[in-house]
Write a structure and sequence with these properties.
37% of the residues lie in helices and 12% in strands. It is of the alpha/beta class and 437 residues long. The protein has a single domain, classed as Metal-dependent hydrolases (TIM Barrel). It is globular.
Length: 437
């Protein structure tokens, strides 16, 4: 096996929602309350929802930029690589990168669609959420069958509407939803509350995977305003660990053997110790905590129900036996700053080339295609058309050279160059929030 032979499926990418998102999926009357894309006097693009401005349209969509220009920008569509928001350009960039298929999370409406939860008019919110899913499934994923895995958002402010929407999108071929990693931080009941039983049931019955993305409830904390932003970036992926522990103790996982949870953008190197600690905690403490795994260990439950993913994680790959070779997939994270586009194929190959071919196939694509019930080979007309080599050949004409797109710096005007801090980034978000108020 060589690099060009691998097949790559990413379980974590992102969409910057395009201006045309609502055009084909709302009636004339519904378009009256549809979000509108506007530009302010400073050249910033923003969506207007219920007379409220939603902040940065291109949060961290910095793929293709010079690294000196990374950050939480861009603020407008013309500061982004077109593949961030245009499906045709995205496919070109996927080809250039050797990526067969990707599962994409929202941006402006947030990873779990929480923006719709904040609408005062919940009927309008539900209409827009359904239109969003139709756009995502029919246009973004449907334009190029086999290339993008559908991933719906749900109106989890209403459990009955959530169940109904899941059944609706399943009929459209979607077997994944994006959900909050901790809904109690979104003003909803804990995942341990019986309120969510209909959700577990409908997902299990329809083989729908629950994706919980970092930052969709709990977030990595900033140590202090003076802390280098690098410290926060280091901890951001593994911030999923607290939610992972919470979900591991979810009783529904024992009631529904085929209920699956995907930990999105969390890495894998921390998992061996996490599972060791979970098993130790259960063995050492269950006599007084009364936790019960039905005669099994927490690590057994994890390997039956959880998928994890990595961009570059040499330590995790060296310890696959402690994680589970069926529990690991690849993520590209396009168009965010952790993505190594357009070098994903070569970077992944360097990470996995010493593993057995059977294992390489599992973690590069087989685990993901099986989990999401996605027949990419069938839709693409054969496995030979899906390899990194075949796709990269299709993308040879794509210009992948880093470019300068401009954009604001996180430091204060006129300030001498210095290490960027958490305070700089937090101040940027505060300014966005004030503008939106």
């Amino acid at each position: 096996m060589e690099m060009n032979d691998i097949i790559i499926v990413s379980v974590d990418d992102h969409i910057i929602e395009p201006p045309t998102m609502w055009d084909q999926h709302l009636t004339a009357a519904q378009k009256e309350f549809a979000p509108k894309l506007l530009r302010d006097k400073n050249g910033k693009d923003y969506w207007l929802f219920e007379d409220r401005q939603v902040g940065n349209v291109g949060l961290n969509a910095v793929v293709g930029r010079m690294r000196e220009e990374y950050g939480c920008e861009p603020i407008s569509f013309d500061q982004m690589r077109k593949g961030a928001w245009d499906i045709h350009a995205r496919i070109e960039d996927m080809n250039a990168n050797g990526i067969l298929a990707g599962l994409n999370f929202p941006s402006v409406v947030a990873f779990d669609g929480i923006l719709f939860h904040q609408f005062q008019n919940k009927q309008n919110a539900l209409t827009l959420l359904k239109a969003y899913n139709d756009w995502h499934i029919d246009e973004w994923c449907g334009s190029y069958p086999g290339r993008n895995i559908p991933n719906a958002i749900v109106p989890y402010w209403d459990i009955n509407a959530t169940v109904e929407e899941i059944r609706r999108v399943v009929k459209k071929g979607c077997h994944a939803i994006s959900f909050s990693d901790n809904p109690s931080l979104r003003g909803q009941p804990s995942i341990h509350d019986e309120h969510w039983e209909p959700l577990w049931k409908v997902c299990a019955e329809n083989n729908v995977v629950i994706n919980i993305h970092i930052g969709s409830g709990a977030s990595a904390p900033h140590a202090s305003a003076a802390s280098p932003i690098d410290a926060w970036i280091v901890t951001m992926p593994i911030s999923i660990v607290n939610s992972a522990a919470d979900w591991l103790f979810l009783k529904a996982l024992q009631r529904y053997p085929n209920l699956k949870v995907s930990l999105s953008e969390g890495g894998i190197g921390w998992i061996p110790y996490f599972l060791e600690r979970a098993d130790f905690t259960f063995e050492h403490h269950h006599a007084w905590t009364y936790s019960d795994f039905g005669g099994r260990k927490p690590s057994d439950i994890f390997r039956e129900h959880f998928m994890t993913c990595f961009i570059e994680d040499k330590f995790g790959l060296k310890n696959l036996d402690a994680i589970g070779e069926d529990n690991v997939s690849y993520e590209c994270d396009y168009p965010h700053s952790d993505s190594v586009w357009p070098e994903s194929a070569s970077g992944l190959w360097e990470s996995v080339k010493d593993l057995p071919e059977r294992v390489i196939n599992k973690i590069t694509h087989e685990n993901a295609l099986k989990l999401f019930n996605f027949d990419a080979f069938g839709m693409m007309g054969g496995r030979d058309k899906c390899t990194a080599g075949a796709l990269r050949k299709l993308g040879e004409h794509v210009d992948t050279a880093p470019k300068s797109y401009g954009g604001p710096a996180p430091l204060q005007p006129g300030e001498a160059r210095r290490p960027v801090t958490s305070g700089d980034i937090l101040r940027m978000f505060e300014e966005v929030a004030k503008a939106a108020a």
